[in-house]
Design a protein that fits this description.
Layout: H1 3-20, E1 27-32, H2 36-45, H3 47-50, E2 55-60, H4 71-76, E3 82-83, H5 85-90, E4 95-98, E5 112-114, E6 124-125, E7 138-139, H6 144-147, E8 148-149, E9 152-153, E10 157-160, H7 163-172, E11 180-182, H8 186-194, H9 198-205, E12 212-218, H10 225-229, H11 232-239, E13 245-251, H12 253-259, H13 261-267, H14 269-272, E14 277-278, H15 285-291, E15 294-297, H16 301-309, E16 313-315, H17 328-335, H18 345-354, H19 362-365, H20 375-387, E17 414-425, E18 428-437, E19 447-451, H21 457-462, E20 465-468, H22 474-484, E21 490-494, E22 500-504, E23 509-513, H23 521-531, E24 542-547, E25 552-559
Parallel strand pairs: 1-2, 1-4, 2-3, 4-5, 5-10, 10-11, 12-13, 12-15, 13-14, 15-16, 18-24, 19-20, 20-21
Antiparallel strand pairs: 6-7, 8-9, 17-18, 17-19, 21-22, 22-23, 23-25, 24-25
Length: about 550
Amino acid sequence: MPALARRRSRARSARSARRWRTMRTERTVLAIVHNVAAATRLLDILPIVASDPRIRVVFSCPSSSPFTRGTDEYLRRRGVALTPWRQALAMPADLAIAASCGPNLRKVRAPLVVVPHGMGHNKIMQPDGRTGPSTGGAVHGLSAPYLMWGGTVIPDLIVLSHEEQRDRLRRDCPRAVDATLVAGDPSFDRLVASVPLREGYRQAMGVTAGQRLVLVSSTWSDRSLVGEVFGLVGRLAGQLPIDGYRIAVALHPAAIAHDHRWAYEQWLDECTGKGVLLLPEPDLWGQALVASSLVVGDYGSVTFYGAALGTPFLLASHPAGTVDPASPIGRLLEAAPRLDPDADLLAECARAIDEHDPARYEAITKLTTSHPGEAAGRLRAALYGLLDLPEPDEPAFSDAALPIRRCRLPPPRALLVTAAVTERRDGRLVTSVRREQFGRSGGFDGHLVVDVDAPGVRHLALAEIVVHRRAEDAERWIAEIFRELPRCPLAAARERDGTWLVGGSDGWLVEVDHRSEDGAVFASAVHAWLCLGEPIHELPGKLTVRLGGGEVVTASARVR
């Protein structure tokens, strides 16, 4: 198309956009979203300008990333519609922001700002896009193949989080140094601001007071944790006692994009049956990280962010040549404690938590940001300067904590439980309850508790307590389950008001006034009472359960 025709086409597009608009905005920002990982970072940053009614933000995906799949759906769930890439290139824009850079962005006419989509720039990428060592590799985001085209620097502004990145850029792409701004790390600022809300994130995930949350974090590629030691998740689930530990898995969005979430759900199905949570959304890693007591990770950003927060961590995958050895992550890989996947994992995890000293890694983790808590203000000043707009009167804060979003760890489908009455007086029954994964150890003297959420047939056949956590009519469900499973002596169901009902196969019911999802432990307390040969109608009205992890839960009970 001749130049004059292109200009006329853009003018028609601009008039059409103004004709149908509601808000009388003064500037347009083009958000360039290559993939879901980039989207998560941009949605962290864009509120700096998007909250200003003078500014309109338009999203578009160039579809140049091998991990584009799922980006449209991710944004739609957040109320964002994508503008086709060709249309976005043709529309008038005052600024463009991307969380990744490459030769295709040379076509963007607006001033271009590029921000990192992880903890700085660390990975060595090969000409074919893979991570790992070989000839011709370059640091992603800090080298000429990503920042230059035809001898010209593509971005107008390259945002960095720490001065050390500028030093490495000077080493690998000196012509781009003058285009840099060291602004700090807005994502890390949010993590730090979220630390006081840690218990809120733990409760939203269903982690109890006596449990430690282990976050297994994997980046993408066949050299990542999942790529190299996939079976580790299952071994952790099998060896860490449920009363003391829970496990969540955070996968890099690129891994999900390549193989589909459904595939990972199938590969991890046995782990899910043991109570492991595969985080349902790619932007929940921050809440899970703040909630965690231990990170088991690899060379991805989440592991480093955890170390920077002072969280104990273990490296389960540390292949050579995947990251720039001079980068913060490269330096952490050299100093970090290793996890032996074939060792006693309970002992390894407990030792890592109990013996962790954040000061040991402080010289490395302080490279996260040169301007703690200041990223939003520094970045907003730069963006408004490029937009030629005065900044809003209100200061830009970097301390917007992550929202508390309900994201429950799944209950294990089958648990072997030992329950013993330790005290009975003054109308109170105290019971010690210890739970283990079914099949974890041989010769276990206890009873099998089975959840009805996708149980195995062999589990149901052996169950002594069957549990339903979402019953519409708890009493009716209990009556029916005994007809279907005549060999099962006890059942427990959660009422619609959150309380629990425990029933026996001979028709009795016990109302338990306890409203947490873990109320099924009181069915084990009732089981222990009956094992003493005591009649159900003499069950004390106050129940206390001491769990193996040290947590104590109480409830009132009434037999009817």
